[in-house]
Each structure stands twice: as structure tokens, then as C-alpha cells.
Write a structure and sequence with these properties.
370 residues, alpha/beta, Rossmann fold, five-stranded antiparallel β-sheet
Length: 370
């Protein structure tokens, strides 16, 4: 055993004695966030339930602070682990404060009566998730984002060392996703809380996670830090992406490009071309673009959607060979879209390209003039 707070040794999970995923070996230091990712049906929820003790593992061991979880009582586990699952709590007759207070049950007596100290913990938990003013509001009359924060406050009330979340951002809009995960991150830093969760939003997983566990087939397919996992087209392979693409570096996905010979040449750069690329893709119009630097904001989208992307490595002057390749593409296209009003010192070739297109009588569209 190492000094890791959480660890599994050859954990095997499944149902009715039939293994779904075998040989799971993961470890976390206190205060770290681990995110499970993988295709639908890969077993993320099964792993979470097995770690939480809601589903008996078929083999292996879960350790909490070097103690085997299967040798701990339910009361002991309830003080170590808090769980927020995707299924929504039915609290039609309860206020938000009453829902949060149920998190104190592992510490109360048989009748579940709260002490003054318990009530103070409830108040502090609601304050932490910025829901104190909603304490008397019926739980059934708040939004999904607010419910998720109430459930997080309920988990905080348990004063756990490990928090398990199954797709916690599923019902949230972009604003509330960011608020929720930011709050979670602060709790890990401030309280030393360790988090294991599943997420479908890969770009969020890459940003918030200390470690990522990828599930596919009978075994863990890849495990490590985000920068080790999200590399080299791995995500597309993990999810079997055949239409469209996912860019691990920028955390963006694009639909399938329009096929065929380019009909339009797009002169872009500095992030000015992305909306044009996507507009052409939506209309099913194949296009070529250039000359772009390979580290330009437009480049990942151009690489995914363009029939031909003429690019220059690094911030160096665009040479004659690239200009000639772009000029030939302009000759073959009936229309040119120039997204730039002016060009930098290293982009002189693009200015020449625009002048060439005009001299050839090409139809020129300049979106920035609108």
C-alpha cells in the first residue's frame, strides 16, 4: 500500500455475478479529482456504485486511507463517502433546508433529531453553495441548477472525505456547469475533499480533473493526468468517432466536413475564419483555406472542416511555395472569402493572395465589412 488516500486493488465490478469491468487499479491523493469517461454503457455508473458500496464488487478491494471499505460498517462508510447520483431526489414535501439536513443523518440518533451543532453545519453547507436564502423554499419549486447545488450542500453536510458524483452537470446549462465545477474545485482545495465523478462533457473533464480514467470494454483503457490521456486522437478512438472529429488540445468537436472539390477559398487567421468555416459546412459547401499558421486559432477548425488547409509551421514568413499552393487553389475556386481587414508583417503572402484573386475577377466576400 502507498500513502494514497483512495485506492483500488484489482477491483472487478458487474451484475449478477457477471463481470463488466475487471482489474481496476486507480489511486488518488487527498484533495484530487478523478473523472471517469467512456461511451454510454461502458460501466461508469457501475464503477461509482461499487466504490460507494451500493453495489457489491465481484472481486478486488477498495481502500479508504489504507482501510478496506468492505470491513467498514455502513455508518462508518456514510461518514467517509457522500454520493450524488443522476436520479433526482423526490422531495415534494420538503424544503431545501430539510433536504440538506438529511446529510446529517449518519451523525444523528435513531429519530434523526438535529442538534444545534448539526443545524449550524446545515447553515454553513448552504452558505457554501450560495443557497442560504433558499432554505425555506420548497425543493420541488427550484431549478435543476439550484437542485444540484442543494444536493451538493446535502453531501457537504455529511462531512465526507470522498464525494462521488454521477454526471453532476447533466441537467445544467453552461453557466451552472461552470459554477458547479468551480465550487467543487474550491472545496477540494479548501477542505481536502477527494472527488470521483463521471462526466460526458470532455472539455470540462480535461479542465477540472487531476486524473482521468477511460473505460472501454472489460478493462480500464487508459488512466492518467488529462495531458497524458487527451492526446493523439485518443478520444476519437475511445468513443469510436467516425463522423466528425474531436480535438483534444483545444477541447472542441466538429461535425463531418463537406466532401468534394473546394468551391470557395477562405483567407482567414487570428480566429476570424471559424464562423465562416462552420457556415460553409452547414451549407454543405466544400472549401479550402490558407495560409494559416499551425498555431493560429483558426487552424484546429480549418483542419477538421476544410477539404484543403494550407498551413505554415511556426511564426515564420509565409514562403513562395505556400503562396503558390494557395494561388492554385484560388484559381480552382469560384469564390473567395476574406475574413481579414489587414494582415501582419509575417502574413504578406495573404495580402498578395487577395490582390491576386481580385485581379482574376474572382467573386470576393468580405464579412468584416458588414
Amino acid at each position: 500500500m502507498t500513502d494514497l488516500f483512495f485506492q483500488t486493488q484489482r477491483l472487478c465490478v458487474g451484475y449478477d455475478g457477471k463481470p463488466l469491468i475487471e482489474g481496476i487499479q486507480i489511486g488518488l491523493e487527498q484533495g484530487e479529482i478523478l473523472t471517469l469517461i467512456g461511451p454510454n454503457g461502458a460501466g461508469k455508473s457501475t464503477v461509482l456504485k461499487s466504490i460507494a458500496g451500493q453495489l457489491a464488487p465481484l472481486g478486488g478491494t477498495v481502500y479508504l486511507d489504507k482501510r478496506p471499505a468492505d470491513r467498514m460498517t455502513k455508518a462508518q462508510l456514510a461518514r467517509q463517502i457522500a454520493i450524488v447520483l443522476t436520479s433526482r431526489l423526490r422531495g415534494e414535501m420538503m424544503t431545501c433546508g430539510e433536504v440538506v439536513a438529511t446529510g446529517r443523518y449518519p451523525y444523528t440518533g435513531y429519530f434523526g433529531l438535529l442538534s444545534e451543532a448539526d443545524r449550524q453545519i446545515v447553515e454553513e453547507a448552504m452558505e457554501m453553495v450560495h443557497m442560504r436564502e433558499w432554505k425555506e423554499r420548497p425543493f420541488s419549486r427550484i431549478s435543476d441548477g439550484q437542485r444540484q447545488r442543494v444536493m451538493l450542500a446535502r453531501a457537504i453536510c455529511q462531512q465526507p472525505r470522498l464525494l462521488i458524483l454521477d454526471e453532476p452537470t447533466s441537467y445544467l446549462d453552461v453557466r451552472h456547469q461552470l459554477e458547479f465545477l468551480s465550487l467543487l474545485q474550491k472545496m477540494c482545495r479548501k477542505m481536502g475533499l477527494t472527488v470521483i465523478m463521471s462526466l460526458h462533457e470532455l472539455e470540462l473533464a480535461a479542465k477540472v480533473s487531476d486524473r482521468v480514467c477511460c473505460l472501454k470494454g472489460r478493462y480500464v483503457d487508459r488512466y492518467g493526468r488529462p495531458e497524458e490521456v487527451f492526446t493523439g486522437g485518443y478520444v476519437s478512438s475511445l468513443f469510436g468517432v467516425s463522423l466528425g472529429s474531436y480535438d483534444e488540445i483545444n477541447g472542441g468537436m466538429e461535425l463531418e466536413p463537406a466532401l468534394g472539390q473546394p468551391q470557395v477559398f477562405v483567407i482567414a487567421g487570428a480566429g476570424t475564419g471559424r464562423s465562416v468555416y462552420r457556415r460553409l459546412q452547414r451549407k454543405g459547401i466544400p472549401f479550402a483555406t490558407g495560409i494559416l499558421f499551425s498555431n493560429d486559432l483558426d487552424y484546429p477548425v480549418a483542419k477538421a472542416l476544410a477539404a484543403d488547409c494550407i498551413a505554415s509551421e511556426g511564426l515564420e514568413p509565409m514562403g513562395e511555395a505556400l503562396f503558390e499552393a494557395a494561388r492554385q487553389r484560388v484559381d480552382a475556386c469560384g469564390r473567395v472569402i476574406c475574413c481579414r481587414e489587414r494582415f501582419g508583417a509575417l502574413e504578406e503572402a495573404n495580402g498578395r493572395l487577395l490582390s491576386y484573386a481580385k485581379s482574376r475577377g474572382k467573386e470576393i466576400e468580405e464579412p468584416w465589412r458588414k
